[in-house]
Amino acid sequence: MSAQPYPPNPIKKGSNSPIFFSLNVRNTFALIVVPLGACLTIPWVPANRKTWLFGIFYAYLRSFAIVTGYHRLWAHKTYTASTALKLIFALLGAGAGQDHIKKWARDHRAHHRYVDTDQDPYNVKQGFFYAHMGWILFENNETSNTGYVDISDLKSDRIVQWQQKNFVLLFIIMGYLVPAIICGLAYGDFTGGLIYAGCIATALQQQLTFCVNSVAHWIGDQPYTDAKSARQIPWATAILLNGEGYHNYHHEFPTDYRTGIQWYDIDPGKWLISLYSFIGLASNLKSIPQNEINKSVLQRKLQLLEKEGEKVNWGIPLDELPVWKWEDYEQEARTGRNLIVIRGAVHDVSAFVNEHPGGPAMIAGAIGKDATKLFEGEIYRHSNAASNLLDQMRIALIKES
Asked: What is the pLDDT, as a whole number, of residue 379?
């Protein structure tokens, strides 16, 4: 195994709060200062409806580059993309302002491998804000605790290397200048294009993406596994995050190019990847066999049922019951106790004799005897509810001679 690309975290264990990290000036400027500065200009820059619509459209384009490019292509290798498609992803992804591909994919692979631990770069257990964006604002590679992952494939990818080398310039051009130029040339709104479609739309798109690391690890259902914090919140993030809200499934099956696996699931990411494949820009789409998915679903249902079962009184567990010999049972029955044996267990039915639907006589004849055959159908085949009620009356087990 090659050496870890970043040195281990020298910060003492238990001191993982963002306040122990030095502020990352570059990230803070891009994520906080620029958007706030843009908002301060709003009173002097008219909001053009066309600019806002273009800003939303362009934000979605960049989001698709993150979801289908950075995430499902480079981080998880769920399909193979053509050089042309990878170049588009690299350009639009740079415009999203979420760091270069190699850094983004490395962090995300570490997130999956070390999720919910100190080596998870955006560990939600350090708090909602930390997982959302605190880890970016206070990130310092010299004191990074991010766990080791193999990124040899990313280092050998020429487009990934090219984008990393030119990332800052590409971010400025694709994130701010392109929307300004398009809005300016189309209908003369250069300033509005820069402020609304560039600075503000970029910031909003970033915040929505960050919700995958925070909201999708904080609230929602866990139909596949509860071993990790990832959750399903499709009702909130399917459209806004292009399908990334099916996060519990994604963490259980990260190599699937889909996250919403049902045909009706709103997962624009899978639809786009399918389109890339249809037009010849992508191939080797990976998906998990339905049988393997069914296993996880069933195991989770059984786990939930087991937890529900723990809330129910099933009677004294068999392994906690005292053991009697048959002679002990007969002796106890002769003392006047209303005891019967069914399925090798002694039951004290004293409190139920007068409540029996068939009348007290039906039980009286079985006192001191083995009533298993009577209970299971010789006279009347009792219901499952009757068996459950009987289990709460057991007091001992009969030891066979």
From this structure: 64
Residue matched to tokens 């701010």: 176
d(CA 365, CA 377): 16
Q: Which pLDDT belongs to residue 239?
A: 72
pLDDT for the residue 164:
97
The DSSP bridge pattern shows strands 394-399 and 323-325 to be parallel
**Residue 116 CB contacts under 8 Å (≥ 6 apart), including other chains:** 123, 124, 125, 228, 229
Question: In this structure, which amino acid lies at residue 171?
Answer: F
Low-confidence stretches of the chain (pLDDT beneath 50): 1-20
Task: Pull the structure tokens for residue 283.
Answer: 């191939």
Burial readout 42-75 (b: 16 or more C-beta within 10 A, e: otherwise): eeeeeebeebeebbeebbbebbbbbbbbbbbbbb
What integer pLDDT is reported at residue 359 of this predicted model?
80
Kindly state the tokens that stand for 89.
């992803």
- Tell me which residue has tokens 């080791």: 148
pLDDT in tens, 8-47: 333 333 344 444 457 888 999 999 999 999 999 999 999 8
Structure tokens at 11: 């910060």
Identity of residue 335: T
The radius of gyration of the chain from alpha carbons, rounded to an integer in Å, stands at: 32
CB 363 within 8 A of CB 356: yes
Cα–Cα dist 119/6, whole Å: 12
Model pTM score: 0.82
User: What are the DSSP E strand ranges found in 24-101?
Assistant: 80-81
Residue 218 to residues 120, 213, 226, Cα–Cα distance (Å):
15, 9, 12
User: Under a CB-based contact definition with an 8 Å cutoff, are residues 391 and 314 in contact?
Assistant: yes
pLDDT of residue 301: 95
Q: What is the pLDDT of residues 158-209, one digit of tens each?
A: 999 999 999 999 999 999 999 999 999 999 999 999 999 999 999 999 999 9
Pick left, alpha or beta for residue 99 (phi over 0 → left; psi -120 to 50 → alpha; otherwise beta). left
Question: What single letter denotes the amino acid at residue 351?
Answer: A
> How far does the chain reach from its first CA to its final CA, in angstroms?
62
